[in-house]
Amino acid sequence: MPKWFESWFDSEYYHVLYKNRDDAEAARFIENICRYLQLGQGFSVADIACGKGRHSRVLASLGFDVTGLDISAASIEYARSVSGPNEHYFVHDMRHLFPVSELDAGFNLFTSFGYFENSADDLLSLNNIYQALKPNGIFVQDYLNPDHTISHLKAEEKVHRGHVSFNISRYVQNGFIKKDIEVMDGAEKLRFQESVKVYSAAALKTLHEQAGFTVLKTFGDYSLQPFNEKSSARIILVSQKP
Asked: How far apart are CA 45 and CA 132, in angstroms?
């Protein structure tokens, strides 16, 4: 049986449910973090778990040579169909060695991590990112802050997208924040799930250090405010390969 992230991310309903994501917010964050990092035009960067490439396209617009990697073949097909000359997309599982190396920077954004049952696979993924970077290369990871997320968890929600309806249940179970998604499309009823590991900022920092990174900075939101364990919505780690 495919894992939840293999079936859900490749489903058309995933993109229907999340079609209203804030692209302007994503662009502001990329611009903020790249300005902070002082990345130069022409730098080689990777968007790891890039989806349809919304962050990748912003990175490309800033003058970077961008490689987008994602496990969803459907997402990569779309990203390629709208790509520019300095965008390159590959179907890729982050647990495997990367198809590119000598990167100046890697980005893993919008909680595109923590999906695997075994934490060893998360560390393996970070090891692969580490190997793909140049010495002194930068890795930026944007993850949900579990304290904030759990305290604001909406247990039940109904969402309507045209003729498609979604019944969503959220809960915490065995160290994961889970979302059960029932899709109703006419007479068709389908079920999917999302499952994201509860990683504190300290736990994520430890994983980065185990992979060999030096953690330089921790931000708490997309405007790069300092991280606060209780009130910050995000954990944004900036790490460097020595």
From this structure: 10
Q: Token pair of 52, please?
A: 């349809």
The residue to which tokens 């910050």 are assigned: 232
Rounded CA-CA distance 197/146 in Å is 9
Among the CATH numbers 3.40.50.150, 2.30.30.140, 3.10.25.10, 2.60.40.420, which is that of 4-145+200-240?
Answer: 3.40.50.150
CATH 3.40.50.150 placement within the chain: 4-145+200-240
Output the CA angle 206-209-214, nearest 5 degrees. Answer: 125
CA separation for the pair 44, 60 (Å, rounded):
10
Residues 6+ apart with CB under 8 A from 152: none
Strands 44-48 and 65-70: parallel
Residue 238 clears pLDDT 80, i.e. is over it: yes
Residues 99-123 have a mean pLDDT of 97
pLDDT-derived band at 2 (thresholds 50, 70, 90) equals confident
Look at the block and give the residue holding tokens 């999340």: 18
pLDDT at residue 21 in the model:
86
Beta carbons of 205 and 218 less than 8 angstroms apart: yes
pLDDT for 31 beyond 80: yes
